[in-house]
Amino acid sequence: MLATMHAAILLIGGKSERFLDPFVPKQFQKLSGKRVFEYALHTLLQSGAFSQILLPCHLDWIEVLRHELIEFQDKVVVFEGGNTRQQSVQKSLEHLDDSIKNVLIHDGARPFLSLKMIDAILEALTTHPAAGTYIPSMDTIGVCQENFITEIPDRKKMVRGQTPQGFHKSLLLQAHTLAQERGVQNATCDVQLALQLKANVKKVDGEETNIKITTPIDLTIAEHLLRQKTPSNPIKTELFGKKIALIGASGGIGQHLHHELTQEGAEVIPLSRTSSPFAIDLTNPDSIQKTSLEIKKQFNELDGCVFSAGCLHRGSIESISQKKALEMVQVNFLSLIPLLQNLPLKKGALFILIGSSSYFRGRKEIGVYSATKAASINLLQSLQEERPDLKIQIYCPKRTLTPMRIKSFPEEDPASLQPPSKVAKSILNQVKGYFCTGEVLSVL
Which of 137, 400, 422, 429 is deepest in the core (most CB within 10 A)? Predict the structure, then answer.
């Protein structure tokens, strides 16, 4: 079906009273640097299925969003929504072009809308007047009246409703007209209104990860899901013939990445304190700048850089020396700044950071190390917004059998650690298979 036949309504008008933030409603909260609703918006835009994307918005945020979304103004319309979900949909119907035949509705507080669900809803609308996404109920459902359980419905018949939902425009208009005539003012979803017309509503499979941000704890869960999420905008990456600087190539994961990159036909430029012809000292900004200029003189521009260097000194916060703490800060974090300022990366170049799973939560006796890894990831996420011309990816391996790990944790059973060769191969397979800039991905 032609895109001109489809419109999408992304509901972002709620007051978010349950989120407990008096200033920023849940749909406008930041999730890994982007507003919650932006994830769904970008998926709608990426689908290419919609000639109109309507955003009925909270009054206080209209001008902010019009400014932030100015690059999409030819397709995205931001306007004042209603006091309820139902009213926001009604107002959106007034903005629909005459050519629109089908309308998809999605909650802006559900960031993990997928292309698969969009396609499934639009496909269902070719044979049915309405469709909605639902997932099975894994829990027993009870009917409660006046604090007493009065009924336990058959769980096999119970499903949990999500969005997106889709409708023929004519049905949606009729459903809202009937609701007004009957005095229905606060319907929780549009399928509820369509059923008043006894419409056949096709069930489409939803996704467990398609959660709705309702309370602050949901944001924490969403952060976890982002780390596990396969990128929704995959980019195939060809490594053959590419000039790639590899920082930390002399040992551990970096040594095996060197091998894997060479096997892929890349021209690898290893960088370490002892590498030749280019040596680099990550604790010295002057060394970083000097080596970057030398690389530019010989290669002009690089197709990418992999940062696999790391420094770990184990010790409690009370006992760690300033010298050791500073070395970790310099190598793991501060060195990235002059590198990114001086390395001759071409437009569209890769920048891959090999992080650590310890960035998520500080751990006993590696607090400084964990903090530097978290800082480096935040830096790269900021860079992704500042430099959209770069393809930035962050990989966080689980505990890996490297010389640094063995030295710092001699009591660990080597059998419990991942082989660095396997980790390197997994990272390169992900880079080749798909690439979505700015994501933090777990490895193995």
Answer: 400
* pLDDT tens column, 191-242: 999 999 999 999 999 999 999 998 889 988 988 887 665 544 455 688 999 9
Task: Report how far apart, in Å, the C-alpha atoms of 258 and of each of 204, 261, 266, 270 are.
Answer: 45, 5, 9, 8
User: Is the sign of the CA dihedral 15, 20, 23, 27 positive or negative?
Assistant: negative
Sign of the Cα pseudo-torsion (353, 358, 359, 365, in order): negative
Give the burial class of 89: count Cβ atoms within 10 A of its Cβ; 0-12 exposed, 13-18 middle, 19 or more buried: buried
CATH homologous superfamily of domain 243-443? Answer: NAD(P)-binding Rossmann-like Domain (3.40.50.720)
- Identify the architecture of domain 3-220 in CATH: Alpha-Beta Complex (3.90)
The reply to whether 243-443 shares the fold of 3-220 is: no
Question: Residue 69 and residue 77: Cα distance in Å, rounded?
Answer: 9
Instruction: Give the alpha-carbon dihedral of 20, 226, 73, 188, to 10 degrees.
Output: -50
Backbone angles phi, psi at 439, to 5 degrees: -80, 150
For 157, 262, 292, 302, 390, the CA distances from 344, given in Å and listed in that order, are 60, 21, 7, 6, 12
Tokens 């770069």 sit on residue: 390
Rg (CA), the chain: 26
Q: Please list the helix, strand and coil fractions of the chain in percent, rounded to the nearest 5, in that order.
A: 40, 20, 35
What distance in Å separates the CA atoms of residue 110 and residue 24, rounded to the nearest whole number? 16
Task: Compute the CA torsion angle 400, 406, 409, 413 (nearest 10 deg).
Answer: 70
Burial class (CB in 10 A: 0-12, 13-18, 19+), 236: exposed
- Enter the pTM of the model: 0.67
Lookup: tokens for 298: 């010989």
Cα–Cα distance measured from residue 434 to residue 231, given in angstroms and rounded to the nearest whole number: 7
Domain ranges of the chain: 3-220, 243-443
Beta-bridged to residue 201, according to DSSP, are: 130
Confidence check: pLDDT of 124 > 60: yes
Q: How many CA atoms lie within 13 A of 160 on its CB side?
A: 14
